[in-house]
Amino acid sequence: MTHAELWERHKAVMPDWLALYYEEPIEIVKGSGRRVTDGEGKEYIDFFAGILTNAIGYDIAEISDAVREQLGSGIAHTSTVYLIRRQIELAEKIAELSGIPDAKVFFTNSGTEANEAALLFATQKRRSNQVLAMRNSYHGRGFGTVAITGNRGWSASSLSPVNVQYVQGAYRYRSPFKDLPDAEYIKVCVDDLRNVIETGTAGDVACLIVEPIQGVGGFSSPPDGLYAAFKEVLDEFGILLISDEVQTGWGRTGEHFWGIQAHDVVPDAMTFAKGLGNGFAIGGVVARPELMDSLSANSLSTFGGNPISTSAAKATIEYLVDNDLQANAAKRGAQLMDGLRGISEEFPEIGDVRGKGLMLAAEIVDPENDKPDAKTTATLQQETKNRGLLVGKGGLYGNVLRMAPPMTLTEEETTEAIEILRDSFNSLR
């Protein structure tokens, strides 16, 4: 069956709003290392990793063996009404790595569900439905997470279970304060936070939720230290800080294991998902015990933290740590950043190069006026695919190329990808 035939079947039974990449969408049927093969036999270097989910890459023996061992027991599922050894072991490891004192962990099936749980804990603990979020943010497609998403392209409904106010600071490139030095930029954003709390809320706000690097928002981020400065204001009002680490966790930024650590602050809770399972569905919340234990009713998760997913996740974390993939993300990220900056010197269509580690982006603009250029971005994404490189897309205006390959990326693969990117930009001429 061709991709075109499969696409016709897809359109007949799947929702219209289910976004697909490329003029002619592809099916990925095989993978090894950092390379994948589509249903018509074409091979690609994967620089989006299933939206940052295949953090280690494809066909990793240690992870596959852990899953096979669990399947071999005959137990794929028991539910959280029973003890799950792998779940407990994984929770112990994440609690230790979190840096949150006496942390407790609750497992879910996705980042959306993790953020929904964090909102539940925070609003219950604070007895308030008021929430602060960042402009240009994205936190999932659930009812509560859509409500706190500050990006119109992904806000499907104005209906909301929470009262949300949005704060400046996370998307600097098009901020009215972008030309300020870091210290002044932070001060202005902190002043805005205080003003929003004092004028747009009743004061008893439950939490502020932030992405250390905004994912769907185009890998944008504030200067390091902003969220520590925010935390000082939040503490004055008793407001909790939640860090959405669904994309920034597990060492991907290179410099820290968690993205929020760049701000030298320990949040009250962190949410996680994506790369933890290297393709297996898992997410969760790690939080201070008084926050995690704030629910006054019974609860559970039928599939969250199941034996299969937690076996895969435990093997993934062990592989990450044992092979120091955080250091590799820093090295390969620096190489890729240098390559992107070199290309930007040749092509004024690149308005901004940003990110950390193996979480990098290029914002595409009209060189004449610096306006977002979504059309050229789509063309470039198609051109890289034609040349054997898969990259992501995002940003408020759909004009950002996102690159987040598996953290096992090699020097040679990075060089190859940079050349494909340069050739793709040359095709614009």
Question: What secondary-structure arrangement, pairings included, does this model have?
Answer:
Elements: H1 3-13, E1 28-32, E2 35-38, E3 43-46, H2 49-52, H3 61-72, H4 85-98, E4 104-108, H5 111-126, E5 130-134, H6 143-147, E6 163-167, H7 182-200, E7 207-210, H8 226-237, E8 240-244, E9 269-272, E10 283-287, H9 289-292, H10 307-322, H11 325-346, E11 350-356, E12 359-364, H12 374-386, E13 389-390, E14 392-394, E15 400-403, H13 411-426
Parallel strand pairs: 3-13, 5-6, 5-7, 7-8, 8-9
Antiparallel strand pairs: 1-2, 2-3, 4-10, 9-10, 11-12, 12-15, 14-15
State the major sheet.
7 strands, mixed
Could you tell me the number of beta strands?
A: 15
| Helix content class | 25-40%
What is Rg? 21 Å
Biggest β-sheet: strands ordered side by side in the sheet: 4-10-9-8-7-5-6
Strand content: 15-25%
Poorly predicted ranges:
none
Q: In terms of structural class, how would the helical and strand content be classed?
A: alpha/beta
* CA distance, first residue to last residue: 35 Å
H/I helix tally = 13
Roughly what is the average pLDDT, rounded to an integer? Answer: 97
Helices and strands, in order, run as HEEEHHHEHEHEHEHEEEHHHEEHEEEH
Shape: globular
Q: How would you characterize the overall build of this protein?
A:
Belongs to the class-III pyridoxal-phosphate-dependent aminotransferase family. This is alanine--glyoxylate transaminase. GO terms for molecular function: transaminase activity. Its EC number is 2.6.1.44. Homotetramer. The chain is α/β, with parallel strands linked by helices and 429 residues long. 38% of the residues lie in helices and 16% in strands. It is built from 13 helices and 15 strands. The protein has helices at residues 3-13, 49-52, 61-72, 85-98, 111-126, 143-147, 182-200, 226-237, 289-292, 307-322, 325-346, 374-386, 411-426; strands at residues 28-32, 35-38, 43-46, 104-108, 130-134, 163-167, 207-210, 240-244, 269-272, 283-287, 350-356, 359-364, 389-390, 392-394, 400-403. A seven-stranded mixed sheet has the order 4-10-9-8-7-5-6, sandwiched between helices. A four-stranded mixed sheet has the order 1-2-3-13. A hairpin with a 4-residue loop joins strand 2 (35-38) and strand 3. It starts with a helix and ends with a helix. The relative contact order is 0.16. The model has no long low-confidence stretch (mean pLDDT 97).
